[in-house]
Design brief:
Helix 1 (2-35) runs parallel beside helix 3, helix 2 (39-50) runs antiparallel to helix 3 and helix 4 (77-97) runs antiparallel to helix 5 (102-119). The radius of gyration is 21 Å and the shape is globular. The longest helix is centred in the first third of the chain and has 34 residues, at 2-35. The chain is mostly helical. Helix content is 81%, strand content 0%.
């Protein structure tokens, strides 16, 4: 009996090792495809794996990220709807399984914000609280990740940029509406650049924030810094075109 138990232990150790190795290889494949903008390949690999490994947090949040990345290459609202909703589902499941996962918190914050934009002003205001809440958790868990600093910069920018009508709706929804400023947006975009200085989006949105503060000199510098970086994706190209158009109007 003891010999049989020992054999079972060895079997399970070997099986576990194989599963870990398979998971590691799969994640490496997903990351390699994503890093090279082959998002549909990464999506196919992740979805195939998750069918039989439904509680794999590392794959779940990556699927959320991939859905975001696919949508982010397009300005078509139909594409956004097609990918933001399933992306949020993956992020939520990852977060439910592991609330201490920095990336699960980050991608839940990103996608709940995108869903708010799709569903209209009132839902955008309601969801903005979760964007801030889960972004702050993500930063506390991983203070070196540029993506969440960028997200918080966007949060402050969008709240500061609310129209009078949107602010009125916010006051109807909550006694204390969310409070964001362009000054704080600048601080977060600068933190994002400090963490990763080759991302076009950080510079473009830093420039946008300075522009809203009427600091045109620093706005122009940020946009010109963005133009020094070679675009790597369609979303980068969209941002570069926006920066060029804004510079031309200065």
């Amino acid at each position: 009996l003891l010999s049989l138990i020992k054999k079972f232990k060895i079997f399970f150790v070997v099986l576990l090792s194989l599963l870990i190795a398979n998971n590691s290889n799969l994640i490496n494949q997903m990351d390699e495809h994503s890093d090279n903008y082959r998002y549909m390949n990464a999506l196919e690999i992740g979805q195939s794996w998750i069918k039989n490994n439904t509680n794999d947090v590392e794959v779940l949040w990556r699927l959320a990220q991939i859905h975001f990345d696919i949508a982010d290459q397009s300005e078509d609202p139909a594409v956004h709807k097609e990918h933001f909703y399933p992306g949020l589902g993956y992020a939520k499941k990852a977060l439910d399984l592991n609330s201490k996962s920095a990336r699960a918190n980050h991608w839940y914050a990103v996608l709940i914000g995108k869903i708010g934009i799709i569903e209209g002003t009132e839902q955008k205001i309601i969801n903005s609280y979760d964007v801030k809440k889960y972004s702050e958790i993500a930063i506390s868990l991983d203070p070196d990740y540029d993506g969440t600093y960028h997200l918080m910069g966007r949060w402050h920018f969008n709240i500061a940029d609310l129209s009078w009508i949107e602010r009125s709706i916010a006051s109807w929804v909550y006694a204390t509406p969310p409070d964001g400023t362009f000054e704080e947006a600048v601080q977060f975009f600068e933190k994002a650049i400090k963490a990763k200085n080759d991302e076009i989006r950080h510079y473009v949105w830093l420039g946008n924030s300075y522009y809203e503060l009427s600091d045109y000199k620093n706005a122009e510098k940020a946009w010109r810094d963005a133009l020094k970086i070679a675009p790597k994706s369609e979303s980068d190209k969209i941002l570069i075109n926006q920066a060029k158009e804004t510079l031309a109007d200065l």
